[in-house]
Specification:
The protein is an alpha+beta fold and about 290 residues long. The protein has 2 domains: about 180 residues, Clavaminate synthase-like (Double-stranded beta-helix), CATH 3.60.130; about 100 residues, Clavaminate synthase-like (Double-stranded beta-helix, 4-Layer Sandwich), CATH 3.60.130.10. It has 5 helices and 17 strands. The chain has an 8-stranded mixed beta sheet with strand order 1-2-3-15-7-17-4-5, covered by helices on one side. The structure holds N-oxalylglycine and manganese (II) ion. Belongs to the TfdA dioxygenase family.
């Protein structure tokens, strides 16, 4: 007989520009087909799903993630977060403790693996320990950012291709640049242009496929013109009306669509502990 204390499965919109909260689901256990389909539909509509009160092992987290796709594996010559020569861990420790990644600093709005030939479709981040303050993550709706552009800008950018340079290949001593202005500096990395306006592979929605701070270059535009355009677009997309701010609780899993959103993390006190596990899912070539 089912226990009366079991809460009912429910998907509730955050009410904001993106995001839905999922309760009454145990991600450590096999999930019913109709529930998986509802989750996929909700992800298409709301771009991020926030699962509450989860408790799972790495293996269970992976098994849950695989309902939505295959593991993201970078090409051998394209390093990404946590890459070791030849291998990238399957479940990545996002943590400020020894052996973890991303430290305690602010992370600018980005999409995971944007600079690779087939960027990740989505990532899942599972919170094991959270700081008492700071370390919130924000997700930003890039379909809304696109839709709210003026018509002239939409037309201007419709067929442009953008190169996003791999931050894991850049010279750590070089000054930070948000646009590649100096074409005399030799390229250190293989580059993969993607449409600046991409079409979401499931929903068909138009996405402004640009992050906030990684070095980029618009193919075919003079450096100054490209830099000004990108600055204007970045100013536009970085608006609170496009984002949802998540304050983490232990046991949260957030599953986000890297094809439709950016994410940002607040800095937090290095004396506190923030321990999370991340799984990224494979994606397809942007179109
Ligand atoms: C990531 C990431 C944000 C955070 O794991 O890809 O950007 O809040 N993390 O830790
Ligand atoms: Mn990230």
């Amino acid at each position: 007989m089912p226990s009366l204390t079991l809460t009912e499965f429910k998907i509730t919109s955050t009410g904001g520009p993106l995001g839905a909260v999922v309760t009454g689901l145990d991600a450590s256990q096999p999930v019913a087909p109709e529930v998986i389909l509802q989750l996929k539909q909700a992800l298409r509509d709301r771009h991020i799903l926030i699962f509450k009160e989860q408790k799972l092992t790495d293996e269970q987290l992976l098994n849950f993630a695989f309902y939505f796709g295959d593991l993201y594996v970078p090409p051998d010559d394209v390093p990404v977060l946590a890459s070791q020569p030849g291998v990238t861990p399957v479940v990545i420790p996002i943590s400020n403790l020894d052996g973890g990644y991303t430290g305690t600093g602010e992370l600018a709005f980005h999409s995971d693996h944007h600079w690779t030939p087939k960027p990740s479709s989505g990532s899942l981040l599972y919170a094991l320990e959270v700081p008492s303050q700071g370390g919130d993550t924000y997700w930003l709706n890039l379909n809304l950012a696109y839709e709210t552009l003026d018509e002239a800008t939409k037309q201007r950018i419709a067929d442009l291709q953008l190169i996003t340079y791999n931050p894991f290949l850049r010279d750590k001593n070089a000054p930070r640049s948000k646009y590649r202005l100096d074409r005399n500096i030799p390229l250190t990395s293989p580059v993969f242009p993607h449409p600046l306006v991409r079409t979401h592979p499931e929903s068909g929605k138009k996405i402004l496929y640009l992050d906030y701070a990684t070095e980029v270059e618009v193919v075919g535009l003079e450096p100054q013109e490209g830099a000004e355009l990108i600055e204007q677009l970045r100013e536009h997309l970085n608006q609170p009306r496009f984002y949802y701010q998540h304050k983490w609780s232990v046991g949260d899993i957030v599953y986000w669509d890297n094809q439709a959103t950016l994410h940002y993390r607040q800095a937090f006190d290095p004396n506190e502990r923030r321990v999370m596990r991340r799984v990224s899912l494979a994606g397809s070539r942007p179109f």
